[in-house]
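Memo to structure team: turn this sequence into C-alpha cells by end of day. - J.P.
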Amino acid sequence: MIPMSKDSKSHEVLTMWLELQRAVAQFSTTNGLRYQNVVPWDCADKGIHDAWARLIQPENLSALKEWDEAEEANFQPGAWTKEAIKQCHVRSSGL
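Reply from structure team:
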C-alpha cells in the first residue's frame, strides 16, 4: 500500500490516479499496445485525456508531491507523477 496521508484530497488524487491507470490499461489492451508505451499527457484518447486533466489540477499538487515521494523507486508511476507535478505548476502559474 502507498503511504499517503489520510486527508480527503489524498484519497481523491489516489482515485484519480487509479482512474488514469484504468483508462491507460483499457486503451493499451484495446489497441494492442504495451501499457508502458502509453504516455498519458501525450495521448489522444479521450478517457486518458480527461483522467489526466482531472489529475493535474493545481489543487492536487501537494497530494501529487506526497505520491511522488512514496513512489520514488517505481519508474513509470514516478515519471507520470513528476510530469503531473510539472503540469500542475504550469496550470497554477497561469501559463
